[in-house]
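User: Sequence in, structure out. Go.
Assistant: Echoing your sequence, followed by the structure tokens.
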Amino acid sequence: MKVLQFAAIVMTAVMLIPTGAHFFELSNKIGLPREQYFIVQRIYLGWAYFGIPLIASIIIDLALAIMSREQGAAMWFAFGAFVLMTATLAIFFIWTYPANQATGNWSVVPDNWRQLRRQWEYSHAVNACLTFGALCSLVIAVLTTPAVRLGREAPGKGATKATNPEAA
């Protein structure tokens, strides 16, 4: 369980790298003139590889929710992270990807490029907020997961279900 919790946090944190970058550059990019904006957009070539940790995050978050199903709040927070990360993928395909396609990945300047820029930039900003929320939700899931004590009980004490599952 700890390995799954660690993997969920790490994969979601990795996704905070590109989404956080988009979020914090928004105010500097949104008002750039057309030529400058299209030049800056070329730095994202190859960022499609961030789809790998995104899909991994979604799968691992769901697995963590399923594995935590008997742990109340921990399960709901893990499931919340799964929902938030899945929402980022939906937002990408509804708003970001169409802007990429309409502009040939920002190599073609269509007449509505300003509207596409807003769509692209704000969809990334929303995804950054959702990703941060998912990371917070995962951390809460881990913190609310009851600790399982390993080892032996003190002499004279009976084994409990927490230390010996067969003692129930």
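User: And one key feature?
Assistant: The chain has one domain: 2-167.
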